[in-house]
Amino acid sequence: MKELSLNILDVAKNSVKACATQIHINLEETENRLVLTITDNGCGMSREQVANVTDPFFTTRTTRNVGMGIPLLKLAAEQTGGSFEITSSDSPDDHGTQLSAWFYTDHIDFTPLGDIISTLTALIGGSPDIDWFFTHSAPGGTVELSTPELREVLGDVPLDNYEVLKWIEEYLREGYNSIHNQ
Amino acid sequence: MKSLAELAAIREKMKDKVVLREGSGDIRVVVGMATCGIAAGARPVLNAFVEKVNEAGLTDKVTVSQTGCIGVCQFEPVVEVFEAGKEKVTYVKMTAEKAAEVVEKHLKGGEVISEYTITNAIS
User: Fold this and answer.
1) Which chain A residue is nearest to residue B33, measuring alpha carbons?
2) Topology (CATH) of B22-122
3) ipTM score
4) Considering the domain A4-180 in this protein, what is its CATH number?
5) Which residue of A3, A14, A57, A63 to mutate against B (max B Cβ within 10 Å)?
6) Distance from C-alpha of B76 to C-alpha of A57, rounded to nearest angstrom
7) Within an 8 Å CB–CB cutoff, is residue A61 touching chain B?
8) Where are the domains of chain B?
9) What gap in Å lies between CA A142 and CA A117, rounded to an integer?
10) What is the full per-residue pLDDT of chain A (182 aa) written as tens digits?
11) How far apart are CA A55 and CA A181, in angstroms?
């Protein structure tokens, strides 16, 4: 993947497929570190699935027997000297998955974050009924988006409405501009 | 600054339209967005379709959606166009530019761009 935001798009879709109703994507950036955390309340995975999830030849897809999403994200983190962790529970009372990836952003093999705004609009537009929570905290400030807040104002208008997606895109762009101008 | 008041204005404007959109979607555009598609560049293709379909005023007729792996990863980004009563059209190795062309010629003009289809790619 050319951008970390593409890994995020890819892996967040696993949460969508796990029928999550709430998905949190957090980026925590300090001077030379970036921590990505994705948390969902989806159906979760069995212990066997969690153990195998970083193995490229273990997949839930049916078109072929190779699944590269998680292995690619793990590789992206580890090649910077960082690490990757995934925990999951498929218990009926408390199910969901949390993954974290730690990156050293000053390492030569760090993949830049890239167009995270496009990733978010693709995710929200593709699954407008999910509650999305996004936070990116950086030394210059924080960019935040929570779709339940938007939905409260929007009423019946779906989040995949084109003008709403454009609003989200511009809202995030303004947020990032204010961080970068610090 | 973007404000929630702008969203309220969108809601106000959409009041009549929301009903209109029901029962729409004669044409379905489906973009493959599994790992293979995303790595090959499906994200800008998806965004181009969403944008151009809106710009062409086709939102009542065309829905753009995402799916997983279609099974022909070597041809990603892959886009399928479904239209009632017609054969499915599979476009391969798509780009944002080609997407804009498909919206204009195929979705708006009704003319399949054979050059970009899988049939052309494998023959």
Assistant:
1) A10
2) Glutaredoxin (3.40.30)
3) 0.88
4) 3.30.565.10
5) A63
6) 20
7) yes
8) 22-122
9) 14
10) 999 999 999 999 999 999 999 999 999 999 999 999 999 999 998 888 888 888 887 666 555 555 788 999 999 999 999 999 999 999 988 999 999 999 999 999 999 999 999 999 999 999 999 999 999 999 999 999 999 999 999 998 999 999 999 999 999 999 999 988 75
11) 41
